[in-house]
Amino acid sequence: MDPILTKLGEAVESGKVDKNSPYPPQMKGEDGADELARQALDNGVAPADVLTEALVPAMDRVGRKFSENKIFVPQMLMSAKAMNAAMGHLKPFFQSGDVKTKGTFIIGTVKGDLHDIGKNLVAMMIEGGGWSIIDLGVDVNEDTFNQTISENPGAVVGLSALLTTTMTNMEEIVKKIKEVNPDTKILVGGAPLNDDFRANIGADFYAPDPRGAVEYLKELAA
Ligand code: B1M
Q: Are residue 156 and residue 185 in the same domain, yes or no?
């Protein structure tokens, strides 16, 4: 593998956004994901290789460490930020169609619920897994989900809920999505959920953390 891609992967895994970024302290003054992604492209590395050989495996390692409690939310956010800095250089290639994404993932926190930290992490990790993301934000109702699905046929949907009171809203939303768009795959997550709840409301998959969500989408795209 091109040594720049190895360095880029390390920068993302460590959360080194750019040269001026003070985090992590042991990488002070070194190039970050921003500069390394640019250099890789300028050196002629294919944009798809930047994504699949550096960014995706790095975010995969980050997801695994988070699941194993070896890193925590702040470190994961820094890695996601570094990944986004690198993605900024790749976006023009995605938009021009030179690089294909694995699919579209529509995500939102269900109506009545304003918690978005977990949802944002899941969205960033899935983007790092090579999907295009439509983030509908928080307090999202069934009509908005259905409208967005009809505009993006084949998209996978992710619902997040953090409150026991909004879990019931999740049930309503799943029901309406399945009524209007029966083939849509729905992934659910959030601290109060479990797989029994997922089965009761008729969603397709429950992921306890971003890594579980990425793994599920990987299987769907295979
Ligand atoms: Co709220 N809140 N909050 N809150 N809040 C909790 C959730 C609560 C457990 C605190 C408590 O009482 N101990 C409690 C819920 C109790 C319950 O329902 N049983 C609670 C409450 C009651 C409330 C209010 C009702 C408080 C009030 O106003 N009286 C109110 C509700 C507002 C509303 O939503 N309508 C409220 C408000 C808020 C703030 C706005 C102040 C703020 C949210 C800020 C924001 O998100 N932008 C907030 C916060 C920060 C929390 C706590 C402290 C932290 C939540 C968080 O971000 N965790 C939380 C207590 C706690 O968890 N310690 C609490 C970190 C985040 C990374 O984890 O979101 O679980 P989490 O996401 C995880 C997984 O769940 C999973 O992956 C993530 C990473 O592992 N995951 C998915 C999440 N979504 C997924 C989707 C997937 C897959 C995996 O696929 C699609």
A: yes
